Amino acid sequence: MIGGIIYRYRCGIAWRDVPEVFGPWQTIWTWHRRLAGDGTWERILQRLLARADAAGIIDWAVSVDSTIVRAHQHATNTTRHTGGSVELHESFDRAA
Question: At what angle do helices 25-37 and 40-54 cross, to 10 degrees?
Fold first, then answer.
């Protein structure tokens, strides 16, 4: 199950696309939800980070380059006027 969960996140695929070699995708998803819900993943991460930090193998420097960050065209929350009723009101005002 863990191999299927890791594969899914590493490849960035949908749960339904996890290869059958890992078992039914529904079972993999269920295990992931259970482990996430009871905090198991968080505990694993904290222990791994603590061991890696103690061994000095973590570089805590972070660099973000916004030129490679992509957003979907609908990701914005700004209003976009596409015509429609706004255009009709403007046309009516100009005609009067």
Answer: 70
Please report, for the chain, the start and end positions of each structural domain, with discontinuous segments joined by +.
2-62
* Between 94 and 41, residue with greater pLDDT: 41
Give the integer Cα–Cα distance in Å for 24 and 55: 38
CA distance 31 to 52: 26
pLDDT at 62 over 60: yes
CA–chain centroid gap for 41, Å, is 16
Residues 6+ apart with CB under 8 A from 26: 15
What span, in angstroms and rounded, lies between the C-alpha atoms of 22 and 5?
Answer: 9
DSSP one-letter code for 83: S
Which tokens go with 92? 């009516």
